[in-house]
Design brief:
It is a single chain. The chain is an all-alpha fold. The chain has one domain. The chain is built from 4 helices and no strands.
């Protein structure tokens, strides 16, 4: 029983890290990138929505359903997307910046 609980907690922790994009691969812009290019990198609302949908769908498959994801977080999917939108947008921008400046990897 304890092992199952720990596995559930581990899955939930990993789910939260992936949903909000909190991993060592993502992060702020590298200091190697000129500051004037920072504002030139943008993502569309559609890109952010697609990434949020992709992540929610992934967790629905891990937890078994979107209802179980909502139950775990105690929030409806729409609220989860709203809560994580800014983090996902920042991660997508950081990913685009890395592609523009491969030396920062």
């Amino acid at each position: 029983m304890k092992t199952m609980l720990l596995k559930g907690v581990a899955i939930a922790c990993i789910a939260t890290l992936i949903l909000c994009g909190c991993n060592k691969e993502s992060g702020a812009a590298s200091s190697a990138m000129p500051r004037n290019n920072v504002n030139a990198v943008t993502v569309t609302a559609q890109e952010v929505d697609a990434e949020l949908d992709r992540r929610i769908n992934y967790f629905a498959s891990v937890f078994g359903s979107t209802e179980k994801v909502e139950e775990y977080y105690g929030k409806p999917i729409a609220q989860l997307k709203k809560d994580f939108r800014g983090d996902v947008e920042k991660q997508l921008i950081a990913d685009k910046m890395k592609k523009l400046n491969p030396a920062s990897k």
